[in-house]
Amino acid sequence: MLNIFYCHGFASSFDPGNSKVQTLARLGSVSGCNIDYTRRADEVISHVIERGNFANVDVIVGTSMGGWLATELGSSLGIPFVAINPAADPSQTLRNYIGAGEDYQGKPYTLSESTVASYYPIAKNGCGLILLDEADEVIEARHTQQMLSEYYQVEVFEGGNHRFAHMEEALPLIESFQSDAEVVYGLGET
């Protein structure tokens, strides 16, 4: 069984009852923490590193902004990652949310321009799998595919949406990717 660390997206929270988390739990234990993307990128990364027990994590999985974060964490910590509909250029994606807003739990937030400017394009190194829903209404899947296919295995599912409608279909891909990544990183049996 895998130890999975899950990074949720912008204005969301870590919820063990979330359908994506529940589906991932069929592969192993899933942990995570609440992430406040209204903080600067370096603060977000430090916060998650402090709270995650990454010495025991087999794979990091994240969606949207969490996909960006999973890529950043995985690349810097040497842990395989899966980025689902990732924010490939978060300083552009987050521009739509500058100012006052309300998160999915009904809590108010304020996102400043300087915070948005602190986010940089997705990492292009490390051992990653990118999963995209073609009909993502927030982040253009074809652009992400073109931007990242030279660096990572990219799988595009027909239809879907930004919340990612193909988690069930993605499970075998995630499992196979993680197994292959163990060999790449020298963590598994050959």
TrEMBL record:
What top-level branch of life does the organism fall under? Answer: Bacteria
Residues folding into a coiled coil are none
State the signal peptide span. none
Q: Where are the transmembrane segments?
A: none
Q: Which InterPro entries match?
A: AB_hydrolase_fold, UPF0227/Esterase_YqiA
Recorded hits in SUPFAM superfamilies, A to Z, give:
alpha/beta-Hydrolases
Q: Which PANTHER family match?
A: ESTERASE YQIA, ESTERASE YQIA-RELATED
> What name does the UniProt record give this protein?
Esterase
Its source organism is Marinobacter persicus
